[in-house]
Amino acid sequence: MATIRETLDRLSKCKQFHLETVDRSLDSKKVKELKKEVSHHQYGPQLLDEIVEKTLYVPFSTFYDQLIVVVSSIKEEKFSILIDINDPIHSETWCNILVWPVIKNKVVHVFTNYREINDEYPLLLLDDCIYSGLQIATIMDFISKEAMNVKDCIKCIIVVPYASKHYQIVVSGQMTGRFNCKDITVDQSKLVIEKYYIGNLIDFVHSKTIPDNMELSKVVGELFDGSFLGSLPLYFDHKIAGSVSCFEYIYTACVKTLPDRNHLKKLEDLYDLLPNKISSGRICI
Fold it and tell me: Which of 81, 129, 177, 248 is the most exposed place for a label (fewest CB within 10 A)?
């Protein structure tokens, strides 16, 4: 059986993980159709225009370049990473594979499940974006509950090419359970975020049409199927995130071509490293 490092070496050479060039920008005709649908609300069309105007669409080539830039800025000479082979079909696994040739010589341990994690070296947690902070908090919660080899405290390094302008506030709020209804209370005596490496900062939509934030949150929820005030005006070639993260309803309705998630299918190869295929049960948004 191949080792995890041999598997990462092989997967990092797979062209399937590098998306082909496809125009997934917003279609002006579809935007006009959606404006008609929300015209029953006095602020609907104007609010949609504001969100569309502030939206950043990130093609894969741009995302990949920014991912390499932020990873190349890491100053730590040695660290560990987590590749959860029980549950690998996630963006953070894909991102680790994309950058594996860049980081492999600095990686001391590749932990293949949460129980293996120790605090000998900092733990690098890499992902595509920090939106609401819920995904990072979920992973941190799993680590704090599952890691069995912690002598002192796990020092985490968070690395993302894109993030909410308020990433520290939202991540902290999610980790302490203040910002969500999930049972997340990270034991910060066992695990802390030591450092962030952030590429591009994305701000929330600040509306001139509806300047009152509470009213804005209500209208956005009513018109755009659950999207809320904290959603980022951002989507990628590889993913339109859920409605707690971005304006999913608008982007799904208006992009010229929907993202294709087939690039993640090859991650199933990581299941081959399992003695048996038992999922860790983590659900990330």
Answer: 177
Please give the span between the terminal C-alpha atoms of the chain, in angstroms, as a whole number: 32
Whether 125 and 99 map to the same domain: the answer is yes
How many of the other CB atoms lie within 10 Å of CB of 133?
25
Q: Are 231 and 193 in contact (CB under 8 A)?
A: no
Residues 162 and 128: beta-carbon distance below 8 Å: yes
Give dist(CA 258, CA 266) in Å, integer. Answer: 20
Domain that holds residue 35: 26-58+204-260
Say if CB 258 and CB 25 are below 8 A apart.
Answer: no
Domains of the chain: total: 2
∠46-48-54 over CA atoms, to 5°? 105
DSSP per-residue string spanning 21-60 = ----SBPHHHHHHHHHHTTTSTTHHHHHHHHHHH-EEE-H
Residues 6 or more apart whose CB falls under 8 angstroms from that of 2 comprise: 10, 272, 273
pLDDT in tens, 81-99: 999 998 888 999 999 999 9
Model-level pTM?
0.91
* Amino acid identity for residue 10 in this structure: R
**Cα distance between residue 104 and residue 111, in whole Å:** 13
CA-CA distance, 136 to 116, in Å (whole number)?
Answer: 19
The reply to whether 118 and 181 lie within a common domain is: yes
Range in 204-208, 212-216, 220-224, 251-255 with the lowest mean pLDDT: 212-216
Q: Do 190 and 215 fall into the same domain?
A: no
pLDDT computed for residue 279 by the predictor: 42
